[in-house]
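Inputs:
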Amino acid sequence: MNFELNENQKLIQETAKRFAQEKIEPIASEIDKTGEFPHKIIKEMAELGLMGMIIPEEYGGAGLDFTSLAIAVEEISKASASVGVIMAVNNSLCAYPILTFGNEEQKRKYLPLLATGEAIGAFALTEPNVGSDPAHLESTIKDMGDYFLLNGTKRFITNGGEAKVFIVFATIEKEKEHKGICALIVERGFEGFSIGKHEDLMGLRSTANCELIFEDCKVPKENLLGNIGEGFKIAMHTLDVSRIDIGAQAVGIAQAAFEKALAYSKERKQFGKYLYEFEMIQEMLANMATKIQAARLLVYYAASLKDRGVSRFSKESSMAKYFASEVAIEATRLAVQIHGGYGYTKDYAVERYYRDAKCMEIYEGTSEIQKIVIARNLIS
Ligand code: CAA
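Outputs:
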């Protein structure tokens, strides 16, 4: 067992870290305030290869492994969790299912667009009435012979307002439950597709999160991803991959909170002593650092299973996401606590981290869903 990153992974970590510090950190607070989508940053990230990290070189991507993706998502999320998830969704929720389940034509058409940042990708599973239970989607697909007709509304779609390529899930036969779900590649601009309400989120505010509306949307037959009825398994397998990145994102937020708390404890004096000299503060710092490292190792372990070609890693991916989310909540809460009244103001980044962290235990499957996945895998 080797706990060292390899030379390439170290280089990726260094590159992502430098980019995050120099380009993202200076605008992170501002885009959180305005909710603006960071187009310029995303374009630069695409040039660096970060938007298509797991896309093979033959389709214009960087052809890297999933551990490298997790490492980069952590570094980017340390500076801005919003930018971290824009990148993570593009790679693992949009490019990955096309790469894994798409035919050659679909790969050639869409992957270069996603790798170069010409198109941003999104994943549309959640609906107004369906969050945790996607076997019972209300959106429908009708086979019209020459094309599919898509109807329904999708909610809370990360990147939705800016994306050009969407993986959309809907049912072709409700009675079949999960076996009736299909996955379609939908382009912005398809007739009958419009963008709905923009979500005014508590955190992750620059992610163009919004509603998607499909009213008799015409989708060409060749845009079916996989086969009829395979959509549920495509969604579940894709989420197994992308939950690793949410774990990485949570580790990034937690690490940022820890570093800010440590630095502040060395600046602030009370009762004639620096904060770090108080044992209660030391206990908080030790607690944060230990749990962050444990979360990071769970993320790396899950990613390494994917890189080694293990076909099913649902349990490890859910463990990484579940644990890292809890750690992010705890670390950001303690970071605000160490900053005291200042931590509760928008003058310090820790309040943003605290808000961003909350989403980690909600999206891409709540913590409760992760525990269901873990428990089912332990029992079966
Ligand atoms: N990989 C492949 N196949 C899988 C699978 C996986 N990880 N998990 C389940 N399956 C298969 C099962 O083997 C089963 O197959 P058979 O029909 O051949 O037996 C089938 O799928 C049905 O499985 P279950 O009975 O376990 O399905 P379920 O309805 O009980 O659901 C669940 C299981 C884990 C609760 C699942 O519904 C789930 O993960 N829910 C959460 C959904 C979620 O994460 N939503 C977030 C949306 S994404 C997002 O947040 C958007 C964004 O913009 C970031």
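Remarks. The first strand starts at residue 121 and ends at 124. Residues 89, 123, 125-126, 132-135, 157-158, 178, 232-233, 236-237, 239-240, 314, 363-365, 369, 372-373 surround acetoacetyl-coenzyme A (CB under 6 Å).
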